[in-house]
Amino acid sequence: MKLSDKQKIEATKKLSDFLEKNKPSCSLCKSKQWVLIERVFELREFQESGPPGADNSILPVVPLVCSKCGNILFFNAIQLGFLKKHRRGKKKG
Fold it and tell me: CB of 76 within 8 A of CB of 60?
């Protein structure tokens, strides 16, 4: 999901504030230079059986990429306020 201009501004501010406060280093190369990818991606829970997407837990994430080595940090898009937590209704039957 591509972020709207408003979401891009909010994402940049929240992550800039986080980076300024915490100054995280890349765990691989120790760089402190990060690039925000302005899209929301989803991580799905692996299911050994059943069709893809069937009752999987999905975590929406915004990636932050190390500009030196490409290592990626994922931030929860719900926690950042881009998405509202969606609860699936119970299946009937």
Answer: yes
**Tens digit of pLDDT for each residue in 22-64?**
888 999 999 999 888 888 899 988 777 766 655 668 889 989 9
CB 68 within 8 A of CB 29: yes
CB atoms within 10 A of CB 1: 13
73: its two tokens: 């940090």
Q: What residue ranges in the chain does DSSP mark as E strands?
A: 34-36, 41-44, 58-66, 72-76
pTM for the predicted model, two decimal places? 0.70
- List, in sequence order, every residue forming a beta bridge with 63; answer none if it has no partner: 74
- CA separation for the pair 15, 77 (Å, rounded): 11
List phi, psi (to 5°) of 47. Answer: -120, 120
- Domain 5-46+56-76 indexed as CATH 3.30.360: no
